[in-house]
């Protein structure tokens, strides 16, 4: 992924306030940009910029010490260790549990974690889930610096987003931007469809994968990923609400077993007019973006554009809720599904299957 331009902070040229040469600078070709602002307005701008700077600095100071560099290696035929690559991660418990990306550590025989303090430790994989590109590692050590989880469901476009990681091997690098969109569904280079993705303009580069995306309250709102290689100036992170649920499953079972519907979805708001008209008790649902031919969802009668309201007797407010229903217990069971299609409610029965080659 490419870094953002190192030009002006806004990425745009400053518009000319006056396109005529000033009398003082006409002969020298100096153009007037209008009177320079001073007084209370400029003082307010400076205060806002200073507040923004303090927010980013505070988040970096709190989460930076918990952000680690993850180096992976494999053994050659001669038995010598050789490096294959590196990424980032962050400690989320004081006893050394680390969240990172699955593609950073997948099939690694040797994993070394470097802490900002300069300490190096061997790590082991507790579990990984390639479908959501998440993995949990473990290192030894009591009372390690650790990051706190936030809530991605509260995010809105325009919220501050701060990315911390180790791009290109440079340790503990901070970039900042905003949340551009939430609830994205994106297909990775491997062909997997990852749901509940945050889009941000905080610059990510190779090596940032697995690092924390942090909100203005210095809590982690996402796990950065740099695997969407075709995007330029658009960066992504797995939402922390999804990551927390996946981490819990990995800690318990080492893997995430789930039923398979054969659809792509993203969290979407419901039209308020229909919420009132139909007497709905929720304001969001899982919006079906894609359907796999002859998959369980397609066979049951779902269509692209449907909004899933309930599944298995549980309300579906977004993609996270859909994943929670699709546990291993759901496989092979016929479950009721209630959805909104255009302006009418539809009731279906769907039988989740086993994941196919996932």
Class inferred from helices and paired strands: alpha+beta
What is the 3D form?
A: globular
Helix content: 10-25%
> What is the string of SSEs from the N terminus onward?
HEEEHEEEEEEEEEEHEHEHEEHEE
Report on this model:
β18 (335-341) and β19 (344-350) form a beta hairpin. The radius of gyration is 24 Å and the shape is globular. It is built from 6 helices and 19 strands. With 358 residues, it is of the alpha+beta class. The strands form 3 sheets. A 7-stranded antiparallel beta sheet has the order 5-4-1-2-3-7-6. A 6-stranded antiparallel β-barrel has the order 8-9-10-13-12-11. It has helices spanning 40-63, 102-105, 240-253, 272-278, 296-300, 319-325; strands at residues 67-75, 81-91, 97-100, 110-114, 120-122, 124-129, 134-138, 160-165, 173-187, 193-200, 212-214, 220-225, 235-239, 263-269, 284-291, 307-311, 314-315, 335-341, 344-350.
Please specify the SSE layout and strand pairing:
Layout: H1 40-63, E1 67-75, E2 81-91, E3 97-100, H2 102-105, E4 110-114, E5 120-122, E6 124-129, E7 134-138, E8 160-165, E9 173-187, E10 193-200, E11 212-214, E12 220-225, E13 235-239, H3 240-253, E14 263-269, H4 272-278, E15 284-291, H5 296-300, E16 307-311, E17 314-315, H6 319-325, E18 335-341, E19 344-350
Antiparallel strand pairs: 1-2, 1-4, 2-3, 3-7, 4-5, 6-7, 8-9, 8-11, 9-10, 10-13, 11-12, 12-13, 14-15, 15-16, 16-17, 16-18, 18-19
